[in-house]
Description:
By secondary structure, this protein is an alpha+beta fold.
Amino acid sequence: MPNNSPLSTLNSPLKLEEIPNKVRDVLGIMVAVNLVSEDGKELVEIRVDPYPSPVSYKGEYHYRSGSTKQELKGAALSRFLLRKQGLHWDGVPIPRLTLGDCNPSALQWFRDKAAKSGRVDEQVLADSDAALLTSLQLEDGELLKRATTLLFGKDPERFVPGAFIKLGFFITDDDLRYQDEIHGDLFSQVEKTLDTLRAKYLKAYISYDGLQRVETFLFPMPALREALLNAVMHKDYSSGIPIQISVYAHQIVLWNTGQLPERWTLEKLMGKHPSHPFNPLLASAFFRAGYVESWGRGIEKMRRECANHDAPAPIFDTGMSGLMLTFKANRVHLAAALGEKSASALLNSPGEVTGEVTGEVTGEVAGEVAGEVAKLLLACRRPMSRRELREALLLKGDDNFRRLYLLPALEAGLIEMTIPEKPNSRLQKYRLTDKGNVLLTVLRKGKIRP
Length: 450
């Protein structure tokens, strides 16, 4: 009870029989009051049963945290009030949201997916859009719920700020090379994010099966897909903060503002546990569309896919005001892509380039790198066209640029084409390889001078 409550002192002239009425008038609840004796002293005992609905004190809501009393405000208060009413954030109606705010192509896309999964009745899929939303429990009388705009909205961020995904490629924790934002409905976000990761962010190592060349991603795509789906379904969208995916040469880190269920620990999350979706309506829609096989098995699936890929199990961390999930590359696979010493240094010292990397790059690459190539690496801040690179280097002629800068960097495996199958495409751009990124970090640390 708040310290400034008229009931917080026993020196008050308030009579025992008056206390229940006073509590009822101030807090709106009923209590039992008893006079008890303990160690020769008379004490007033006030017994309060747990209430299913929230109780306010003069319009404020308080909770006990250790030995202190905290006031609930903002998003935390909203979650608390919804939980006490047996509701979830995604099930709250939005007054101004109408069927006209939904994208017909997104609804049709869901129909196609649900028809293949067999998890929605065929008659429902053949019915109107309004009937489909009703069957998915996305309407409340004449109003549509929050989950509707996230799943099918033309512009979800009009109603839910921060409902998008950020991607970034990092050399070290403080060196962001390039980034993307993925917007739209949640189904589109998942598909676009996976496509962008494959095409722009993830590198593959080369192996051979007889004479056949095989390219394998450093990270297991099925596990990344499952992690992304979990982030989208379990995110706390009231935070206004986007899901963030940080890609490094040796690891991928996903973070979102999702919270563990009340009284759950990370140990319980890692073990066998029941389904407890933070946003049940979102989870149900993804299940019916066939994106997830069942609820409560996401972590098990991620671990299994990592094991099948000979990669370390994902690392979970709940200490960053949300859930952080880290995938690390298989050491052998990373060594095949970068070299043994570089791989070892990256895996042992995340985010830092050690003397081992310097020695690896200096011995293996630096002898082949002229000052012009080093300048090119420093100028290549993102995927850039030949013209953009030339202008960044303040060069006028293309011949010298091609002969002294571009071709040597390509031959050394420090940069690569974004459209390798069409070398002369007008849309062709160039980006650093993992090897080039490692050398760039060495250059920036001053180990090799251009």
